[in-house]
Design a protein that fits this description.
Protein name: 7, 8-dihydropterin-6-yl-methyl-4-(Beta-D-ribofuranosyl)aminobenzene 5'-phosphate synthase
Radius of gyration: 20 Å
Number of domains: 1
Strand order of the largest sheet: 2-20-1-5-6-7-8-11
CATH topology: Metallo-beta-lactamase, Chain A
Shape: globular
Order of helices and strands: HEEEEEEHEHEEEHEEEEEEEHEHEHE
Enzyme class: transferase
Keywords: Transferase
CATH superfamily: Ribonuclease Z/Hydroxyacylglutathione hydrolase-like
Distance between the termini: 44 Å
Number of strands: 20
Mean pLDDT: 92
GO molecular function, one term: 7,8-dihydropterin-6-yl-methyl-4-(beta-D-ribofuranosyl)aminobenzene 5'-phosphate synthase
Organism: Actinomadura coerulea
Oligomer: single chain
Number of helices: 7
CATH class: Alpha Beta
Helix content: 10-25%
Amino acid sequence: MCETGGGTGEAAASAPRPVRGAAVDPVALEPVDEVEIVTLVDNVYDALLGDDERIRRAGGGAGVVAAPQFEGGRTTAGMIAEHGFSALVTVRRAGRSTTLLFDTGRSPDAMVTNADRLGIDLGDVQGVVLSHGHFDHAGGLAGMVGLLGVRSMPMVLHPLVWTRRRLAVPGRDAEELPTLSRRALDGEGFQVIERREPSLLLDGSVLITGEVDRTTEFEHGMPPPHQAWTGGEWAHDPLVLDDQALVVHVRGRGLVVLTGCGHAGAINIVRHAQRLTGVGELHALLGGLHLGGPAFEPVIPPTVAALTDLAPGLVVPGHCTGWRAQHALAGALPDAWVQGSTGTAYRLSAA
């Protein structure tokens, strides 16, 4: 499944195996005092959403741009929304703050433009994590390089992000998706770190899951039109093995899980994070849950039921979750569900 890797044999060897029971020698994820997640790119921007003690919205006044049609020649621009995802993650522990970038959106300019309108300096970012190789999560790298120039910055990703993929919908011409270039990222100054296994970042404060164990009976992955190049042919790629999530343990609250698309399945991801860390409480789930469209709508009821059992304090589905799943989650978890919007900051503090 990876054009530059060991072909189908390597991909098969890397496939997650179902694992049951309690975690053995769990990852020592250090509890943090606070984590703040700012959605720099999401599918939705709503300037009328309100704040609360955990949530700060960008509002309608973010970003002033030139506009000769208005008196004074200026207007407020708001945030750019697109079919993509990017989040800025700031972890605070023992008086120290460290910031990572989790995904970069679809287009070269949306993420950097939104960061500028929010007054965020991307020069403070100390590392980049890619949830997987799909272009709507990596397109903003071009804008980031153009803004910051070439410099050494660690980038954590799965080795299968370089996989060539396409959509081969029956009755249409197959559409090959943009594929990340390892050569280009090396040349632009990123220090690429390929990991299949879990990774601990920021002095043990952030966990990147690596490949996720597929243990539920209902999360089957992508439908047959989603294909990958094996080195000799195009084949169905249901698992998107490079899919991984970011996890933080907020002291006294539980796990905060951030997904890009959630191709491994939202419940698989949460349970995997619980097993890796030995922490049973789910405090928050944010990001894309990939429940939109006819192929995934049958997965909505069991996902909602399982997530309800997990009883998170905050659920912010975004990006590819889909409106039917949004409504189902809002109905089942009215006290936890929050409408996502580009430019929103979520601050989750220790008990």
